[in-house]
Backbone:
């Protein structure tokens, strides 16, 4: 392709993504924000309090636009440092910039996980950005001003980037995941996954990133760090309502939330089933990794984290975005497309509509239950799809139906969606015939 056509294609792609991102941002910030961005305000007040030298864990944080009794800050001390730039601007300017950063995360994710050979790729990506942005996952994320999209991008940057780039030589893969875990502990599940799959380099650098970020916060304010690591992290139930009523609410789609919704009799089952699900998730991720699909394996871990967490609100299920985009471009049969459409409808309707159906009529109870636990159900289906669906390109993506085993037909692109070759050569050789 001539250089001028390549440059024109690049301009069209960038322009389409920017236009879609701006449209999504304007719609979400000015049209569907039904509540004050309380989570963002807590981040901002925590950063202000920490910068002023006060202990952000001594009591609830108070300020304009949040409830009179204030709200607790449950993230790490390093999170307060990471979030400090939010205090550099006026409240609404900072919120708009933060929302723009989150939408940019959506745009990057869609672009990163859309195969290069998709026909009319710029238009497809722009449509996906708009479609993803109006899901309850992203709209709730923007509405509350959450941080999960940013953390997901830190993880996926590490998973998909090359060791051999200039950035990779000075900032080894794994450090960003460690930093993400130092902000919010959930991404630490990836370190466990690295150990299980014997990705020692990633496990070491993730641990170094976590330790370094945590040490920075400890140097800045030793007392606050001591409070968090000696007390707060072990007694989160004192700050977050982990009682049966909160756990069983419709907005909590985790495994524990689904069990709690069935009644208190499920309490003895919670821990054994959570441990079992964690073991199964790690086993599936390891199996996917063993056949050379490191990014798919990482998506399995990202999808599993909200299942295993005690509370997973709608805006926690951000890994549904890259996983759904990945699976979309592997669909072949009408049954698969129909299942995808049904899953999309379940996600768009959301748990709240499911709860309304349950409370409205016994006839709507089955539909209500599916919608209420829809995020959990769709996530489990996506994990299975990442594990078992063929990864070769269907005809509608590549222009021809390919067969498993060829080097140039992987879909999404091996050099693009699947990221760098981060599996040791010997391990890849031993596993190449497994599937």
Residues:
């Amino acid at each position: 392709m001539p250089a001028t056509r390549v440059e024109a294609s690049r301009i069209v792609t960038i322009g389409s993504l920017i236009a879609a991102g701006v449209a999504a941002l304007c719609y979400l910030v000015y049209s569907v924000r039904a509540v004050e961005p309380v989570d963002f305000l807590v981040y901002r007040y925590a950063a202000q309090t920490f910068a002023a030298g006060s202990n952000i864990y001594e009591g609830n944080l108070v300020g304009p636009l949040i409830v009179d009794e204030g709200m607790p800050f449950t993230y790490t001390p390093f999170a307060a440092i990471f979030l400090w730039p939010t205090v550099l601007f006026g409240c609404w300017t900072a919120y708009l910039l933060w929302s723009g950063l989150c939408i940019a995360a959506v745009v990057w994710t869609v672009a990163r996980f859309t195969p290069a050979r998709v026909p009319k790729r710029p238009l497809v990506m722009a449509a996906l950005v708009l479609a993803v942005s109006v899901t309850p996952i992203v709209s709730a994320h923007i509405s509350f001003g959450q941080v999960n999209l940013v953390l997901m991008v830190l993880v996926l940057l590490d998973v998909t980037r090359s060791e051999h780039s200039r950035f990779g030589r000075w900032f080894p893969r794994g450090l960003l995941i460690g930093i993400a875990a130092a902000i919010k502990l959930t991404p630490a599940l990836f370190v466990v996954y690295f150990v299980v799959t014997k990705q020692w380099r990633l496990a070491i650098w993730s641990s170094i990133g976590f330790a370094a970020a945590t040490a920075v916060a400890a140097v800045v304010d030793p007392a606050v760090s001591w409070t968090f690591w000696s007390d707060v992290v072990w007694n989160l139930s004192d700050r977050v309502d982990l009682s049966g009523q909160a756990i069983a609410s419709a907005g909590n789609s985790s495994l524990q939330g689904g069990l709690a919704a069935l009644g208190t009799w499920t309490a003895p089952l919670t821990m054994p089933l959570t441990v079992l699900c964690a073991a199964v998730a790690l086993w599936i991720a390891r199996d996917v990794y063993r056949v050379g699909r490191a990014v798919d394996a990482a998506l399995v871990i990202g999808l599993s984290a909200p299942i295993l967490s005690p509370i997973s609100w709608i805006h926690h299920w951000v890994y549904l975005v890259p996983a759904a985009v990945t699976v979309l471009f592997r669909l072949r049969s009408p049954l698969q497309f129909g299942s995808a459409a049904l899953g999309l409808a379940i996600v768009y309707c959301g748990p709240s509509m499911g709860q309304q159906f349950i409370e409205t009529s016994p006839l709507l109870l089955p539909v209500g239950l599916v919608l209420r636990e829809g995020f959990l159900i769709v996530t489990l289906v996506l994990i299975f799809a990442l594990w078992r669906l063929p990864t070769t390109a269907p005809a509608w993506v590549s222009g021809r139906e390919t067969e498993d085993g060829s080097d140039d037909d992987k879909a999404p692109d091996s050099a693009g969606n699947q990221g760098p070759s981060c599996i040791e050569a010997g391990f890849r050789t031993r596993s190449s015939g497994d599937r």
User: Anything to note?
Assistant: The CA atoms of residues 37 and 251 lie 17 Å apart.
